[in-house]
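Appendix C reproduces, verbatim, an entry submitted by the partner laboratory led by Prof. M.T., so that reviewers can inspect both the input and the predicted structure.
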Amino acid sequence: MLATQKYGLDNREDLAWDDSTWDCGRPKEDWEWVLGPEQSNYVYRHGHLWSGAVEFVYELEKLTEIVLVTKRPHHATKPTVDWVRYTFDHEPFPFAEVHILGPEEHKSQVPADIYIDDSADNVDELYENTKAHIICVRRNWNRSVNPGMRITIANSFEEVLNAVRDNS
């Protein structure tokens, strides 16, 4: 919606979201604007949520303790906290801990047996700096990640749950 309004796009497909892909074909300047400080409340507090994500978190919580670790620009910390509180504002709260790291920090500083991520950079960093199993949720932007001895590729929430069961 933001890019549609700013750039006069007529078509939601030009904007690049649906429930299974995020087309990164928009110019870098568009993403810098969308993810910038002036849009942080909209994007990080009211932004898109994958269909079935909340239900998935509660299913995952039945299998293991969940520690939420996310990397955000500093201007997105408060909107991210607000989003977590709003989205999971009922009992039981599914997260044992919530860590919002700055862009210069590494997810490996928060210990875990299994990490779930969709960033190729984070998967590489976790692989190099931990002995944990890593589940990479397949998206268009992480096609460079290949499965390996400690890396599982998951194409759906169900595949993530199965990988957690298999590696717990």
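The beta strands are 66-71, 95-101, 114-117, 133-137, 151-154. Additional entries are available on request from the coordinating office.
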